[in-house]
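Quick one, T. Sequence first:
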Amino acid sequence: MLVDGGFIRLPNRENHNCFGCSPTNDAGLRLQFYTDGRTVVTKVNVPGHLCGWENLVHGGVISTILDEVMGWSMLHILKKFTLTKSITVEFLKPVYIETELRAEARILEVKNDREALAEGLLFNENGVLCARSSGSFALFTSKAIQRLGIMNADTIECMRRIIEG
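Structure tokens:
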């Protein structure tokens, strides 16, 4: 599906329970991702039950949004299974609940066949940069993921089809 700016919606599994991106987790963020081939983006309106102080989005939720968008950039741009090795987040401006936020991520560097770096940015409804993150991600083949026992065979096959298109 083509959306504004030449971005296409990325496929997702329907049968999982990820807090960030599951379409069926009632308590989750239900993030949907889009790409132009260089950048991955998502929009989210964080519900009130995920607040920190009063009407501010909890910092852990902000970190989750940035981690998810960076992870999806690895998955779809590099076509690799990933696990977050480290993430740092700079909280620059207040982020309010129940407002439309836009997160985007891009690959900064592929260090080798086992690690890559990404940057994530979170903007408020007025386009103001509110948080910035950087992350280091471990890259895996489907065989390595299976060998480590991180996902069952059905999930690996489903994700492999998503990655490979």
